[in-house]
Amino acid sequence: MPHIAVDAMSGDSGPSTVIPAIKDLLQNYPDVTFHLVGDSHILKSELQRMHLQDSEQVKIHHASQVIGMDEAPSQALRGKRDSSMHIAIALVRDGHADAVVSAGNTGALMAMGKVFLRTIPGIDRPAIAAFLPTTTGRFLALDLGANVDCHPEHLLQFAVMGSILAERVMGVAKPRVGLLNIGSEEIKGNEQVKEASLLLRAARLNFIGNVEGSDIYRGVADVVVCDGFVGNVALKTSEGLASMISHELRASYTQGIYGKLAYLVNRPILQRLRKRLDSRQYNGATLLGLNGIVIKSHGNADRYAFARAVEVGIAEAKHRLTLHIAEVIQENLNPVVRNSA
């Protein structure tokens, strides 16, 4: 019976988005207990508005402070000890919850995760990991911004953790792991990537080699590994391109009578495409490598998107992801899981 701590005050709209999302989840997850953290007066009022109440499945934990989206992580750590984010993470640290979900300040969430949960023994740095769509399904990408500068060993650790997540949560047997590079040839890339490629080939992973940015959305790999600088640029570029395509399609189908007629004819196809590419259903990035499950939702997530982020936390909690990563690392003693041969 998973327990999920929810930072109900953070994000652009706070409780007005979080509580409706939780209401939607209650119907599908009767075995999950949701711990809502925030101003108890506001939360109770919002629960009443949604015809819910504090119960065995929905519990309220009071927090008097909220961390702003623009606050420095160091300031949040020192000055906001009664914040909803702090208390939500503390519930995981103290064993009262199996995962925490927040739409708040990413830097503060990562900093608090490192300080209060620490990293899994054998893992040097946490990575931001998220699912993205492909023509055949979806893939896991990491790191998407937590670590701008990485050593080759860090990329190997990301690959190991990502492979475990894909296998346990996605149900993929022997996940295909690719290393994001400027070319598929082994001679391509900077020294960091070349050294990481050697480590990945020697590891107990289904490593398929280098993959290019143009390949990752074709479903050539189940896990795509890169440093946080490259990953964040690739993610933001992809989001921008998707937004531009959506804008151009909308403009084309609303200009003139022929555009409107074409829209009526193609409406079912466009609706399927829109649903397939809807970024909201992929909301919820895992701060992978912490000694506890921490899920970051987009700050501007709506009711549907926030619920999807919570579902990521539920799935990882049910599959005991942190425990499995820790076991694999411990069995191999080194943080780089290599063949003994």
Structural key phrases:
341 residues; alpha/beta; Isopropylmalate Dehydrogenase; 2 domains; 11-stranded mixed beta sheet; 11 helices; 16% strand; globular; cytoplasm
* Highest CATH level, the class of the largest domain: Alpha Beta
What gap, in angstroms, lies between the N and C termini?
41 Å
- Percent of residues in beta strands? 15-25%
Largest β-sheet summary? 11 strands, mixed
Strand order of the largest sheet: 3-2-1-4-11-10-5-6-9-7-8
Return the CATH architecture of the largest domain.
Answer: 3-Layer(aba) Sandwich
Oligomeric state, counting identical vs distinct chains: single chain
Radius of gyration from CA coordinates: 21 Å
- Class of secondary structure makeup: alpha/beta
Describe this structure in words.
- With 341 residues, the chain is α/β, with parallel strands linked by helices.
- It has two domains: 1-120 and 289-334, Isopropylmalate Dehydrogenase; 124-288, Isopropylmalate Dehydrogenase, CATH 3.40.718.
- The protein contains eleven helices and eleven strands.
- The chain has an eleven-stranded mixed sheet, with helices on both faces.
- Helix 8 (228-254) runs antiparallel to helix 9.
- The longest helix has 27 residues, at 228-254.
- The radius of gyration is 21 Å and the shape is globular.
- The protein starts with a strand and ends in a 9-residue tail after the last helix.
- The mean pLDDT is 91.
